[in-house]
């Protein structure tokens, strides 16, 4: 095993750590790790990301449910339309995208490049949200009455995002749960982990019909990520996640800029 691969496996612990602390953000790391460290093709990397983030989040959500931190009614309202959207996009939309996606004279935009560019743009948006700590203290549901129709529409949009680029969307889900469901931030984080778990696993199931997977690589990486989420959930008792998120936001921004420059060059 090379030093680069050792670095990649060590980074998998960070994936789980981030999910455990912040209720999302793990998929922002997994795709770049798979593409640039392990040289996995971009589309297959999004499949691997869905499995790793889904399995890791399931373990975390079991702990949150056991400790009664998850709002199951809100989870259902958000997750049902979301996993329909993510399954359809992984099962039909992503395989149907042509390759190359766009061609004009000597300029060719491959399917893999398009996914990586889109992923990098999402990373920049996520980094901005984390650096600015864009979490409303209260919103439309400040009266304690969740806006279920709005949650469902947002679930559809997040599912499309998850299905297209393999990102769980935790940086979008947590603010929406605060804004539209009136959940306290810590409860929104716990609920977000369960939603991400459902979205990611459903998206992964949409892929297994047309994808060959390297389980000898995927399972050890996932196992280390699960170790990371236990560390993250433990540290969350002592460390304010918002302070860590700002530093992580700058890190994500640097990685996004690297991805764009790497693809352009």
Describe, in plain words, how this protein is organized in 3D:
The structure is a single chain. With 265 residues, the protein is an all-alpha fold. It has one domain (3-264). It has helices spanning 3-22, 26-37, 42-66, 72-96, 111-132, 148-165, 170-181, 185-207, 215-235, 241-264, and strands spanning 102-104, 107-109. The protein has a two-stranded antiparallel ribbon. Strand 1 (102-104) and strand 2 form a beta hairpin. Helix 1 (3-22) packs antiparallel against helix 2 (26-37) and helix 3 (42-66) packs across helix 8 (185-207). The protein starts with a helix and ends with a helix.
In a nutshell, what does this entry contain?
The protein is mainly alpha-helical. It has helices spanning 3-22, 26-37, 42-66, 72-96, 111-132, 148-165, 170-181, 185-207, 215-235, 241-264, and strands at residues 102-104, 107-109.
């Amino acid at each position: 095993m090379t030093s680069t691969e050792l670095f990649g496996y060590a980074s998998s612990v960070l994936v789980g750590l981030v999910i455990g602390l912040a209720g999302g953000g793990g998929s922002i790391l997994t795709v770049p790790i798979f593409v640039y460290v392990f040289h996995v093709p971009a589309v297959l990397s999004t499949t691997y990301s869905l499995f790793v983030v889904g399995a890791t989040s399931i373990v975390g959500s079991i702990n949150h449910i056991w400790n009664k931190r998850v709002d199951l009614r809100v989870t259902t309202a958000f997750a049902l339309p979301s996993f329909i959207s993510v399954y359809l996009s992984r099962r039909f939309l992503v395989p149907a995208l042509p390759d190359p996606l766009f061609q004009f004279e000597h300029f060719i935009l491959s399917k893999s490049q398009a996914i990586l560019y889109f992923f990098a743009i999402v990373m920049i948006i996520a980094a901005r949200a984390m650096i600015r700590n864009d979490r409303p203290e209260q919103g439309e549901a400040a009266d304690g009455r969740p806006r279920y129709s709005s949650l469902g529409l947002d679930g559809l949009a997040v599912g499309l995002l998850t299905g297209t680029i393999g990102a769980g969307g935790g940086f979008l889900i947590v603010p929406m749960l605060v804004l539209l469901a009136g959940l306290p931030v810590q409860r929104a984080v716990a609920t977000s982990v369960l939603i991400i778990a459902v979205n990611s696993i459903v998206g992964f199931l949409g892929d297994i019909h047309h994808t060959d997977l390297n389980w000898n690589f995927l399972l050890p990486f996932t196992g280390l990520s699960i170790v990371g989420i236990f560390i993250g959930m433990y540290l969350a008792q002592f460390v304010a996640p918002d302070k860590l998120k700002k530093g992580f936001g700058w890190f994500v921004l640097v990685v996004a800029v690297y991805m764009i420059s790497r693809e352009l060059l």
